[in-house]
Amino acid sequence: MTDLWGQLEAVIEELSRVSDIQAAAVVRRDGLVITHTLPDGVDPKIVAAMTAAIVGTSEMATVQLSQGRFNRALVESDEGKLISTGAGEEALLVALLYKDANLGLVLMAMERAARQVDEILRRGTGR
Amino acid sequence: MPTTKDGLQKMLEFFLYGMMRASDALGNTPLFLRSIEEEGLRKFMGVNMPRFHATDDAVQACRAYTAEVDAEGLFDGSDTSFRGTDDALVGEIGSDCIYRRVCTLRHDEGLPVHCIRAFALEEMLRIRLDEEYDWKLERFGVPCRISFRKGAWK
Q1: 3-class DSSP state for residue A119?
Q2: To bridge A95 with a disulfide, which of A24, A46, A56, B117 should be the other Cys (CB 3.0-4.6 Å)?
Q3: Is the peptide bond before A39 cis (omega within 30 degrees of 0)?
Q4: Strand-pair partners of A27
C-alpha cells in the first residue's frame, strides 16, 4: 500500500470516529472503492457504484433545475441516513449515519474530510 | 433477411449512442461504461478469450488483450499499438476502430468522447493485473491517442 493510500485511510478512520457516523468511504467518481470502514455484510463495490450514481444524478439535477452548485446528497430512511459529497475532482465521500444523527456536526466533519481527501489526491497526483 | 455484418455494426452504434446519451442525462457516463466493461469482462473474458493470459507488464498485457480480441473476431486490432512503461503507457488506435463512428458523432456534437476500448483496457488491467489505472483521451482523430497512468492510491 502506498503512503497516499495510508493518508486517505487515516482521514476516513478519523471521520468514522465521529459518534454519529456508523461508517464512511472514499470512492472514485467512476464508482471504484479507494478506502472504507463499511461493516461486514455491506459490499463496498456496490456502495461505491451507488454513491457515484447518486452524486452524478444529483449534480445533473441541480444543473437542469438551475439550482447552482451541487453540495451534497442526503438519503433518509427508517434506519439511518446516507450523505454523499464531492471530495475534489477525482473522489467522493460517503458516510452512513445513525438514525438520530446530529447533521450539523456530521456535515462539518465531512466537509473537513472532503477537503483533506482533495488535498491528499492533489499532492499525490501532482496537480 | 438475416442480420448482416453491416446490420450488426449499425445495431452496435444505435445501442452505444443511445446508452451513452441516456447515461449522460443521468449524470455519470464514465461510471456506466466502466460498470458495463467490468461486468462484461468478468463474465466473458474467460469464455470468449481463452488464450488470453496477461503478463505482469501492462504494455504487454494490453498488446496481448488486443491480439486476442482480434483473433476472436471482435474487431481488427492491427492498427492499434501500445508503448511506454508499466507506470505510464500510451495506446494509439487507428481508423478501423468499430466504435469510431459513435465517437465521431459525439465529438461533432460537442459531447465528451468516452473511449470504450480504453475503459475495457483499464478494466482488464484491474481484473488481471490487480492494478488501478486512469486513462485519458489525449487526442481524438486518426489515430486516437489514449494514455494510461497507474493510480496513485493503491
Answers
A1: helix
A2: A24
A3: no
A4: A33, A92
ipTM of the complex model: 0.78
Would you call A44 exposed, middle or buried from its count of C-beta atoms within 10 A (0-12, 13-18, 19+)? middle
Q: Which residue has the cell 482480434?
A: B70
Q: Are B63 and A92 in contact (CB under 8 A)?
A: no
Q: Report long-range pairs for A34-38 (Cβ below 8 Å, ≥24 apart).
A: A34/A5, A34/A8, A34/A91, A34/B153, A35/A5, A35/A8, A35/A9, A35/B153, A36/A12, A37/A12, A37/A13, A38/A96
pLDDT 10s digits, A61-93: 999 999 999 999 999 999 999 999 999 998 999
CATH class of the region A3-125: alpha beta
B120, amino acid identity:
A
Number of domains observed in the structure of chain B: 1
Q: Give percent helix, percent strand, percent coil of chain B, each to the nearest 5.
A: 50, 15, 30
pLDDT single digits (tens) B82-130: 999 999 999 999 999 999 999 999 999 999 999 999 999 999 999 888 8
The shortest C-alpha distance from A125 to chain B (Å) reads: 7
Query: What residue spans define the domains of chain A?
Result: 3-125
| Host domain of residue B139 | 5-150
- Considering only CB atoms, B152 lies closest to which of A31, A58, A124, namely A124
Q: Does B154 touch chain A (CB under 8 A)?
A: yes
Q: What is the pLDDT of residues B56-75, one digit of tens each?
A: 899 999 999 999 999 988 88
Q: Say if the Cβ atoms of A29 and B28 lie within 8 Å.
A: yes
Tell me the C-alpha distance between B6 and B20, whole Å.
21
Of A8, A58, A59, the CB nearest to B153: A8
For residue B65, what are the contacts with CB-CB under 8 A and spacing of at least 6?
B49, B52, B54, B120, B121, B124
